[in-house]
């Protein structure tokens, strides 16, 4: 992929694999699962989620011009969708954003960014 020059207004769009980890006070794990399932139903971007009574991790693909824009959206994702999906009022404690090539180099080559497989898969840690 050719990078656009810093002055180019038409920056190249790339796919970023995002993992957001949140944590907070312990809740009923059934409630946490239900909230993540609502998130998956209402917002089709979700690839998968894992959860426990005090922690959740969501993974999804995002499209953006650079890692900073994807990371900024990722940091706001939990709070932005919190009210609509009735997510636990937890804080982001971890964030990973990698480009599609890095994700595939880690051995996930069959899971292409454009058409997420297993969308909405919610399971315990």
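^ Assign residues to that structure.
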């Amino acid at each position: 992929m050719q990078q656009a020059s810093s002055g180019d207004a038409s920056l190249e769009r790339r796919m970023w694999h995002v993992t957001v980890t949140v944590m907070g006070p312990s809740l009923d794990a059934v409630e946490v699962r239900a909230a993540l399932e609502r998130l998956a139903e209402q917002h089709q971007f979700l690839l998968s989620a894992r959860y426990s009574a005090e922690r959740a991790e969501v993974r999804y693909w995002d499209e953006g011009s650079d890692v900073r824009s994807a990371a900024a959206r990722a940091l706001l994702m939990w709070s932005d969708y919190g009210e609509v999906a009735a997510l636990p009022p937890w804080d982001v404690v971890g964030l990973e954003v990698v480009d599609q090539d890095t994700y595939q180099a880690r051995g996930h080559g069959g899971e292409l960014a454009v058409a997420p497989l297993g969308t909405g898969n919610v399971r315990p840690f």
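The two ends are 36 Å apart (CA to CA).
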